[in-house]
Amino acid sequence: MPSESPLPVFPKYRLLGIWLNALAFTDILCVLKSAIGAKRKIVLANQNLHSVYICSEDPRVRQFFDQAAYTHADGTSLIAVGRLLGLPFRTEHRIGYMDLFPALIPHILEHDWRVFYLGARDEVLQRGISLLKEQHPDLKIAGHHGYFDRQQGSSENLEVIRKINDFRPNLIFVGMGMPTQELWIFDNQDALDADVILHCGALMDYIAGAIPTPPRWLGPIGLEWAFRLVTEPRRLWRRYLLEPIKLLTWLWKTRAK
């Protein structure tokens, strides 16, 4: 029987209409160890300005974040706004998956955690997993591409869930882009046999080299978005150039009401 041991408690703060925990890497590691040790199924979510915008437009995505056990910041802009509002956010509370995943690898290996990755094109997924296994031969990792019929109850969706559960992962990384990954987790988390479910965007594309990885020093100074915009303008121009304006307009109207 799963343990009902309490999970670590971290304060959460209201920011731009969403809830955020001020989590540093050591806090996230504490959450993972506690949930996996107690066999407690949780969702560890992350928010950036793009997801805040989506939450303002899609009630189901907002519900996904509201029911997550913890939500950390994956965006320097959220940290900056939080600090302007007097909230206790610091630079180390901004944690993107291109930094988080490599930092977790030694702990995954130490504790013999099993990892399942759901998402990316099949060729990208296979290349990324092969690279990870070359670098870390003892890493227990499996995956499935993100191009299947994700309709709840469809034969393909049920087969993906069966494959995940047969692997018995401790950590599931779902990387299918926002809001697809969040809605898939929201619809299927009860059927998944895992301890911690995380959503991670294009993480595997970066691991496999399918997308250029931004220099890591750009993140802490808030300019990673500019590198991504230059390298993927057709996919990201709306996210970085239009959504912030729409979000600020929505926030202004909400505050006025």
Automatic annotation (TrEMBL):
Does Nucleotide-binding show up as a keyword for this record?
no
Q: What is this protein called?
A: N-acetylglucosaminyldiphosphoundecaprenol N-acetyl-beta-D-mannosaminyltransferase
Molecular function terms from GO: hexosyltransferase activity
Q: Which InterPro entries does the entry mention?
A: WecG_TagA_CpsF
The portions of this protein that span the membrane are 12-32
UniProt keyword annotation of Secreted present: no
Q: Which UniProt keywords apply?
A: Glycosyltransferase, Membrane, Transferase, Transmembrane, Transmembrane helix
